[in-house]
Amino acid sequence: MRPIAGLLPLLVFAPALAQARLVINEVMPSGAEFVELHNTGPDFVDLKGHHLVGAVRYTFERSRSLPPGGFLLLSVQGQRTLRAAYGGVQSAGELSGRPSGTGELRLFNGAGQLLDSARYARLTQGRSLQRIDPETAYGGPLNWREAEPSPGRANPVQAEFWGLGLDQLEYPVKSVAPSAGAPIKVRLFASQPADARVVVEWRTRLASGSIELTRSSEGGPGWARLSGELPSLPNQSLVSFTLRAVSGSDSIELSEDPLRGGPLRYFVFDGAIDVSEFPLYCLELPPLEHTRLLERPERHRFPSSFVAVRSDGIAEIRSNVKIQVRGGSWTRNWLKRAWVLTFPGSQRFEGQRQVNLRSGWHDPTMLRDLMGFEAYRRAGVPSPRARWVRVHINGRFCGLFTEVEMLDQRFLERSGLAG
Question: In percent, how much of the chain has pLDDT > 70?
């Protein structure tokens, strides 16, 4: 099996929709930014009328021929910056906009036919995203790789594509109702698509299973579009899933989101809780860890999955979030304890590395923190932001908590007190 998770956060490209031989071959979204086009066909291509739209924009207003096998660069900062970074390379024009961060690019010919398209996520600083095999019809994430920039020449990662890939994955980004299944759609590229199978394996805290996707349409030689539906599951279930494709002796596994990065998963939520006023935080722990969290209030950190359901219905999901009891020996023995959530590494939630949840166990009104911080703020004294949030653990209501901004470097900078 060829695991491909390491490649997936990079890019999702769609194949050429018109039978043209001009492709987007390299994208450099940082430093001396550029987009490289490549003519993979046997004939000269007149670029007049061809245009890029999306994160950057450019139109070839005049006739310009690109020879067979030729490369053409379009830069952001201009010729001087491009040469300073990469030596004797030539820019054919300056792009409007910038390809930095995440974005989408679409390449059209003069007749308005879509030749190539790209949606890309953040790359490692100083590296570009390069097409591995520009000759194949498959343009999905397996045909792209991060590498040192190579403007104006064949990509160093160039090789023959080995012929099995998954592209254009669609699954629920917003939460799914318990009464409904979760639709999964994907496009398969294979040298023998008729013999290929795609199975989706799903799992929750309490259950697991699998389904085989069925063909819904064909998309030209080597292509097939498949779809299926994961079963309806209980409310507040966090569902993780993996796609496995098999064709002859080849097999691949898709376990991370090709565009957004992170594991493939979605959240089941019935919408009965009004999240327009108070955010909903749902934590999920293994049963044994949950028991230890409730019964042993010492300052031990327990790994959990964290889901924040926003007012627009989108569930923001994070992994390996550590939860621990907050406060000293007195507060740790309250029946309703305060918690601190710590996000791993460089991850942030709404700009914060830690989320501070006060229980208000000795404040029946749950107003003292909010009113006190607001009074300080109106008096001109820097004070942390605070709001009420509803917290559930493993699908069960744990109470209304007061989320209070941590007093850290970010707070000092926001209050004008840094340094």
Answer: 88
- Which strands form 214-218's sheet, in the order they lie side by side? 164-170, 182-190, 223-230, 214-218
pLDDT band (50, 70, 90) for residue 7: very low
Sign of CA pseudo-dihedral 296, 297, 300, 306: positive
Q: Which of 307, 298, 296, 299 is nearest to 237 (CA)?
A: 307
How far, in Å, CA of 310 to CA of 25, rounded? 38
Rounded average pLDDT over 182-211: 90
Token pair in block for residue 62: 């005049």
CB atoms within 10 A of CB 348: 12
Contact 253, 8 (CB under 8 A): no
For 57, the token pair is 């924009």
Q: Supply the DSSP symbol for 85.
A: H
**DSSP structure string for 288-337:** HHHHHHHH--SS--EEEEEEEE-TTSBEEEEEEEEEEE-S-HHHHTSSS-
Question: Is the pLDDT reported for residue 317 higher than 60?
Answer: yes
As a whole number, the mean pLDDT across the chain is: 84
Contact between 199 and 211 (Cβ < 8 Å): yes
Tokens of 300: 């031990």
3-state secondary structure of 373: helix
Quick check: 285 and 293 in contact, CB under 8 A? yes
Specify whether the CB–CB gap between 227 and 185 falls below 8 A: yes
Q: What is the pLDDT of residues 149-182, one digit of tens each?
A: 999 999 888 776 666 888 778 898 778 899 889 9
pLDDT of residue 98: 83
Taking the CA of residue 309 as centre, how many other CA atoms within 13 Å lie in the half-sphere pointing to its CB?
29
How far is the C-alpha of 357 from the C-alpha of 328, rounded, in Å?
Answer: 14
Report the C-alpha gap between 220 and 1 in whole angstroms.
Answer: 26
Give the mean pLDDT of 270-284. 90
- Nearest CA among 280, 324, 288, 285 for reference residue 305: 285
Q: Which among 181, 186, 183, 216 is positioned nearest to 198, based on CA atoms? A: 186
- For residue 271, the tally of other CB atoms under 10 A from its CB is 12
**Rounded to whole angstroms, how far apart are CA atoms 373 and 251?**
57
User: Tens digits of per-residue pLDDT, 25-57?
Assistant: 999 988 889 999 999 888 999 999 999 998 899
What is the number of alpha carbons within 13 Å of residue 105 lying toward its C-beta? Answer: 36
Closest CA to 134 of 145, 124, 125, 119: 145
| N-terminal to C-terminal alpha carbon distance within the chain | 53
Between residues 352 and 139, which one has the greater pLDDT? 352
